[in-house]
């Protein structure tokens, strides 16, 4: 089958065209690629072959120049790419620049600038509240419905899908113990999230309003916020997550442009509390995205979290993150927070799926409370696309190796 004939119904058809960075087997040269079915198009080489003005933007070792080029350029480049892969006259010219995915290595697609992680699922926040504060009158903290809670994470340990994750060591102190001990985490967990990638920067002192979300955010990807629950539980009061999360954060190798997700936009859940004007999205376009996520451990699906249930939208998170005048940089990444739906089969962490280890999960050949060495966790997702199609998101996978 000629490479352009992507099977009908393929979630990576010409309606999708996510961006990544690849090198060919045997070469160390990285360049921007666009996924088409089970192939990757060398975008810079294709642009050169067709005499496109975007060749310099695409023949790059990271997506950062494209991210920095801004929304008009994003739309123009996507329009050009769509034409290249759908107009039959280009087939012969482009064929040498299409490579099977099995013959390339995928890399972290952009230089991550700052990394922020939020906590935007009401179901997740309520579950965690019930697990850790069972005696509290309300499972949500008093601020939760008024602002998207977040923290600044560690951008230097954001890794591409496929990177092995070494079990972290640190201080752990179960409540009944008198003193902490040091050693490998015994409660290693996942958090199924969606990451948003900032393209256009903003200057210090200038908040980014809800209405400017699409001018700044280029696209999204799946994200696994690996979490060592025992380290986290002992260290987090009063300043929040630190070493329990900073050892690794995995992102997919493919960044899906927001322009590919127009048919997936949905209204977020009904707001139960009035919002301050900078967060009030009642007169904005729908800010939610209908992304259907699957979480698999060793190939066995354990959960299907629905992103459409997230209370806070990515636009609200961006507005909140900058309302104090904090600047944005090209390559900033922010995570949505663990995605958990209302059903028990829709929870995005083992903490919730096993209710803090109380109820072991049954895998085909084993039971799990938290992750064991050798376990491989894979997040996949799709979204509704144009004309009944599906838009696939690039998977994010990682295998746990023993700590020291
Ligand atoms: Ca998280």
Automatic annotation (TrEMBL):
GO molecular-function term, one example from the UniProt record: metal ion binding
Keyword annotations: Calcium, Hydrolase, Magnesium, Metal-binding, Phenylalanine catabolism, Tyrosine catabolism
Gene Ontology BP term (one): homogentisate catabolic process
Pathway noted in the entry: Amino-acid degradation; L-phenylalanine degradation; acetoacetate and fumarate from L-phenylalanine: step 6/6
Binding site for Ca(2+): 117, 191, 193, 225
Domain spans labelled Fumarylacetoacetase N-terminal: 15-109
Positions that bind substrate: 119, 133, 232, 236, 338
Named cofactor requirement(s): Mg(2+); Ca(2+)
SUPFAM superfamilies with a match to the protein in the record: FAH, Fumarylacetoacetate hydrolase, FAH, N-terminal domain
Entry EC no(s): 3.7.1.2
Residues covered by the Fumarylacetoacetase-like C-terminal domain: 116-399
Binding, Mg(2+): 225, 245, 249
Catalytic residues (UniProt): 124
Domain of life of the source: Bacteria
InterPro entries: Fumarylacetoacetase (IPR005959), Fumarylacetoacetase-like_C (IPR011234), Fumarylacetoacetase_C_sf (IPR036663), Fumarylacetoacetase_N (IPR015377), Fumarylacetoacetase_N_sf (IPR036462)
PANTHER family registered for this protein in UniProt: FUMARYLACETOACETASE
Protein name per the record: fumarylacetoacetase
């Amino acid at each position: 089958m000629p490479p352009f004939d992507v099977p009908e119904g393929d979630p990576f058809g010409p309606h999708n065209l996510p961006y990544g960075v690849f090198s060919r087997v045997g070469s160390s040269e990285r360049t921007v690629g666009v996924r088409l079915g089970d192939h990757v198009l060398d975008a810079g080489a294709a642009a050169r072959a067709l005499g496109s003005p975007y060749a310099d933007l695409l023949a790059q070792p990271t997506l950062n120049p494209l991210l920095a080029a801004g929304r008009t350029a994003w739309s123009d480049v996507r329009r050009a790419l769509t034409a290249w892969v759908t107009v039959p006259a280009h087939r012969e010219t482009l064929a040498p620049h299409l490579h099977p995915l099995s013959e390339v290595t995928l890399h972290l697609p952009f230089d991550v600038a700052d990394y922020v992680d939020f906590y935007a699922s009401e179901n997740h926040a309520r579950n965690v509240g019930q697990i850790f504060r069972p005696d509290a009158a309300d499972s949500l903290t008093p601020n939760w419905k008024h602002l998207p809670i977040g923290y600044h994470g560690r951008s230097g340990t954001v890794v591409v899908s496929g990177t092995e994750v070494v079990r972290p060591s640190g201080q752990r102190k179960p409540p009944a113990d008198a003193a902490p001990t040091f050693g490998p985490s015994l409660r290693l967990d996942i958090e199924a999230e969606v990451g948003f990638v900032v393209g256009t920067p903003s200057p210090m002192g200038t908040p980014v309003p809800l209405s400017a979300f699409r001018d700044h955010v280029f696209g999204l990807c799946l994200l696994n916020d690996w979490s060592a629950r025992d380290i986290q539980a002992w260290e987090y009061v009063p300043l929040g997550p630190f070493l329990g999360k900073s050892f690794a954060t995995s992102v997919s190798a493919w960044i899906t442009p927001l322009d590919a997700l127009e048919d997936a936009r949905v209204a977020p859940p009904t707001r139960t509390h009035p919002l301050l004007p900078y967060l009030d999205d009642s007169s904005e376009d729908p800010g939610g995205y209908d992304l259907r996520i699957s979480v698999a451990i060793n190939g066995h699906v354990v959960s299907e979290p629905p992103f459409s249930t997230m209370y806070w939208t990515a636009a609200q998170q961006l507005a909140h993150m900058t309302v104090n005048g904090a600047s944005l940089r090209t390559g900033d990444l922010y995570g949505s927070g663990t995605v958990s739906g209302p059903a028990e089969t829709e929870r995005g962490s083992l903490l919730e799926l096993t209710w803090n280890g109380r109820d072991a999960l049954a895998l085909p050949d084993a039971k799990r409370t938290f992750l064991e060495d050798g376990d491989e966790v894979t997040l996949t997702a799709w979204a509704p696309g144009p004309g009944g199609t599906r838009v696939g998101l690039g998977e994010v996978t990682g295998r746990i190796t023993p700590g020291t």
